Amino acid sequence: MNTKGFIFDLDGVIVDTAKYHYLAWKKLANHLGFEFTETHNELFKGVSRKRCLEILLDIGSVNATKEQFDTWMVEKNIDYLKYIEKMDASEILPDVPKILEFLKKNKLPIALGSASKNAQPILEKVGLLHYFDAIVDGNNVTKAKPDPEVFLLAAKQLGVKPENCIVFEDAVAGIEAANNANMTSVGIGDAQILNEAKFNFKNFTKIDINFLTRLIHA
Questions:
Q1: Is 0.85 surpassed by the pTM of this model?
Q2: Of 50, 128, 138, 179, whose CA is between 20 and 30 Å from 146?
């Protein structure tokens, strides 16, 4: 049997940090004099911080010098870090620990594949860091999802072939990245939005051990 590797996105899959990103971007938009809505925020799922700011400035029709752009990127991150500083285990999404525990008990390699540059401190704060054999985040990659770089690097660090990796994602760009990497994609969220995923579940409470066992032995 080929050993399977399991790769998890962070925001919206393991923890709900999307709300903190939203509040930080909204504060910046207000500072720049325009409204930033939750609908706008959907465009930011699975996207790098730099690309998010580019989209934000397009929404507000704001032109920026390179210096202003860099300053606003830093300001947004400082605000975001203030929010995540207060995070604890209550922020973990339902049944995520159960899934991680099952994989760990079965000695299956687990990686994080996230655009976030704050992945490690977040996992530490919520008490899940010890489950992960590899962490690949925004500090390690140069290409944003849907480019498969983040997942291919995670597979390499786990020592598992891409075609034997299973990716859990909540964003369209993330599902595309997993598919582009020739991995098995599992959408967490709205199946109509994540319709390119091989499997779909509303959240981890809908995933049972039988499904995981089938993936492991596929």
A1: yes
A2: 128
